[in-house]
Amino acid sequence: MELRDLASFYEIYKAKKFSSAAEILHCTESTLSARIKNLEAEVGARLFERGPKGVTLSEEGYLLLPYVEKTLFLLREARQTLNEWSSCAKGSISIAASNYISCYQLPHILCSFKSAYPHVELNVHVGRSSDVINMVRNYEAQIGLSRSPLSDPLMTSIKISQDPLVLCVYPEHPLAHLPFVDLKDLENYPLISYQKGSDYWSFINNAFSTIGFTPTVFMKLDSMEATKKMVSKALGIALLPQLAIQEELDHGMLRAIKISNPPGLSRATYVFFNRNKHLSGPLKGFLKIAKLSCP
């Protein structure tokens, strides 16, 4: 069956006149009649009855109607999907991400995104969470990713992942064999922490305050990569997101111990954008992939 014959059948059914349907389809009545004859020949039945009020479907026509409607619907849906794909497959997006996300999460997202949209240009800006938020707020970036929750009526914020924190130790450490640890059990072990004032320091400090315990801080750093190196050299232990040490865990360089107290110690990752900003095809594609790519 020809799709144009099915479309002609449907328009005649709606218009109840060959002349009106011909105008809608931008063809002559004779062309329309020829299409219907072709369709009737294929199905082996008369599809229309002529009457004083125009044409109506025959019994066979009514039997055919739902199949025609479904076929035309699927065709429209296919065209829409292809149009959306075409709009998503080109263009550019600007992304602002915090340091942690740009190192440990964004590469996974962009790897999947680039496979799906190879012709989209990517502009990535890296900074502190406050800088990322300001860049999106000031339209310097179209979309932002941060570990800090956002409460701004002008922004749309979506949580895309929840990353548990673990106790990170070197393989020979006395605690390395334990499946779980209470933070109070760290009393006799030197801790490597972040510099005071950072978002990560505040988060860790609040975790210890929750259980009424003050750890022995041996060293303060402002780099997660440096912290991992120090732990691997047996200079101390640290609380780190599991995602940040996954490569070292896979190679046996570090050990991760789950934290039982306080329970549920984890950090979320958020993606956000201006609420009144139109989301282009590439941005919609990025949001969808970000939700699927983050652990």
From TrEMBL:
Residues 1-58 form the HTH lysR-type domain. It holds the Pfam family LysR_substrate. One of its GO terms (molecular function) is DNA-binding transcription factor activity. Keywords: DNA-binding, Transcription, Transcription regulation. CDD domains: PBP2_LTTR_substrate. SUPFAM superfamilies: Periplasmic binding protein-like II, Winged helix' DNA-binding domain. Belongs to the LysR transcriptional regulatory family. This is HTH lysR-type domain-containing protein. The lineage of its organism: Bacteria, Bacillati, Bacillota, Clostridia, Eubacteriales.
